Amino acid sequence: MAEPNYNPDPGGARVLQSGHGGTSHAAQEEQRRDNRCITIKILVPKWIFCSGIVWSVVIGVIVAVTAVLLMMTAPPPPNPEDWFLEVEDRSGKEGVAVFKAFDRNRDGFLSIIEFEPLLKYLQNVTGLTSTAPGEEFLEHKFVDGEEIFIVNAHFEPLQLETMTKEDILNLNFLKAFRLYLRFIKHSFLPLITLGPHTALFGLKNWQEPYRNQSIFGTEEMKAFLPYNDNIMLGMPYPVVQDKPPGIFEETRMHSNNRFYPQAPKGSEQVLYRLLGMMHPRPFVHMRFPPRGTYACVRAFNADYYHIIFRMHAEFQLNEPPTDPFWFTPAQFVGDLVISKNGSHVEYFHMHVPASRRLNVDMEWIVGSFENSNMEVDIGFMPRMEWSVGLTSSKPALRSGDHSSQETSARQVTRPEDILWSSSISVNDALSSLEKAFFPFKQALKKDESNPEISEFASMLLKEYSFPVMMTVIAPNGTIVHKTNANTFLDMEVSFLESGFTNPSTYQYEQFLKEGLHNLERGARPSA
Whose C-alpha in 21, 116, 231, 422 is 20 to 30 A from the C-alpha of 89? Predict the structure, then answer.
């Protein structure tokens, strides 16, 4: 038997061959497998491809010719500018200017969404003028013998970096980067891409008070006086009560889609003037409860009351055609020392508390008008304050509706420097006012007849730190899970998580499940 020999193949490998020159067993097996394979070839005539291209060209030409003929025979689209010229001839330029201001997308038509703020505008003015409605309500008509005093406004704008609701240092990298992009979007991109028509334009340009000083009269400050002399210390009474939303009285919510406030009446006027020193579009009545202004007498003596008040109000920062932007401080707190007959003001001060990390709620419209949603955020405003340096005094000079204060007016006397016949603490007065706005805070905590329920109420009040909160409570009263409305609305849910379920419904279900999970393992809610 001949010895096998090795011959190199073209790739450098060696193929084992037998001495007889025949193929190996492995090669024979591979050839048999190849013989069993079946190859199918499909031949397509070339004329089919040529015909398809020809027919495509023919159909395209027919469509193009038809479109050209329709365009040639159709009447030209209406030009809104031609309509504006016709209206100007009949009604003047002022009417056209008002229409253009509320025609946000500049298509020459007013949708129902665009018409709603126009309706509010028309309700507040008697004629069509170029000045913004409400400006005339920032003035006061003084009466003979009325003392006057000067109020100073102090304002430091919102810190934009606080609009992100979470501490970026406590987040993982991906979420921190997402918040960074959100900050860039809110802070820089709107001004670069949209200029004056971005939703945040009014916020970014509000850098100082609308009026640094205004003269007030003692007659308008009588709105803060109690209704009778027998009122108890710390008993709240309304300065401005909650008010139904105009023509939509069946709802508790005022519309978000409006620009100008309603004309103030009665005791609303002094509050409107105070707020109007900061911004020209103050809303004494907020869009949602708890609205209004409450006051209480903290102290009194033979001549004076020391009155503390709390107000819930807001500002709308944008002008049409930019969508509304709502700026809602957590609360306005003020106090004044006024004579019992209202003829003299010894002291006045009002401010937005800045002791907490966040003190302003903001809402604005995002998306198209027909499919719009409200974006919600919160932030920190360092200072919004009204102060008085001199007591009220008789005017030395009067010119029309304007007066100048006598130079002999003396420095104000602070409430703590006055000897009172009877008084309660400032904290007790503020607590009483808080309960006037939030009645659920007043009943159960001090209910000695049912100590178990009273204890539950105390636990809830201890955890309550935001106007709208959701809690999951164990049978023994322990709060095992909680969140506030802004955090809930800001949760991001992907489609893979929620599927076809409404995102808010999915988030609420997850909130409840997490609460039950915490209850099973006896956990306390995170701060």
Answer: 116
Percent helix, strand, coil in the chain, to 5, is 35, 20, 45
Chain centre to alpha carbon of residue 193: 21
Are the C-beta atoms of residues 284 and 271 closer than 8 Å to each other? yes
Phi, psi of 169 (to 5 degrees): -75, -20
d(C-alpha 203, C-alpha 324), whole Å: 11
Residue with tokens 């009560």: 241
For residue 414, how many other CB atoms are within 10 A of its CB?
Answer: 12
The closest of 343, 282, 335 to 309, measured between CA atoms, is 335
Is the preceding peptide bond at 290 cis, omega within 30 degrees of 0?
yes
Tokens of 334: 């003020």
Distance CA 162, CA 516 (A): 32
Cα–Cα distances (Å) from 86 to 77, 82, 89, 114, 274, in that order, read 17, 6, 5, 22, 42
- Cα 511 to Cα 525: distance, rounded to the nearest angstrom: 12
pTM (2 d.p.)? 0.64
Cα dihedral value 515, 518, 522, 523, nearest 10:
-110
Task: Establish how many alpha carbons lie within 13 A of residue 489's alpha carbon, considering only the half-sphere containing its beta carbon.
Answer: 13
164: burial class by Cβ within 10 Å (0-12, 13-18, 19+)? Answer: buried
> Distances in Å between the alpha carbon of 445 and those of 114, 335, 401, 454?
47, 27, 51, 4
Check residues 386 and 435 and name the one with the higher pLDDT: 386
- Inter-residue contact 518 to 525 (CB < 8 Å): yes
Contacts of 482 (CB under 8 A, 6+ apart): 463, 469, 470, 471, 472, 525
Q: Which residues of 486-501 are buried (b: 16+ CB within 10 A; e: fewer)?
A: beebeeeeeeeebeee
List pLDDT tens digits, range 127-148.
Answer: 444 445 567 778 888 888 899 9
Distance CA 322, CA 199 (A): 6
- CA R_g for the chain: 37
Q: What is the DSSP string of 426-484?
A: HHHHHHHHHHHH-GGGTSSTT-TT-HHHHHHHHHHHHH--SSSEEEEE-TTS-EEEEEE
Nearest Cα residue to 390 out of 248, 194, 525, 215? 215
Q: Please check whether residue 389 is in contact with residue 411, taking contact to mean a CB–CB distance below 8 angstroms.
A: yes
Mean pLDDT, residues 476-496 taken together = 72
Q: Which residue from 387, 118, 136 is spatially nearest to 280, judged by alpha carbons?
A: 136
What's the chain's length in residues?
A: 527
pLDDT, tens only, 390-445: 999 988 655 554 555 555 678 989 999 999 999 999 999 999 999 898 876 665 65
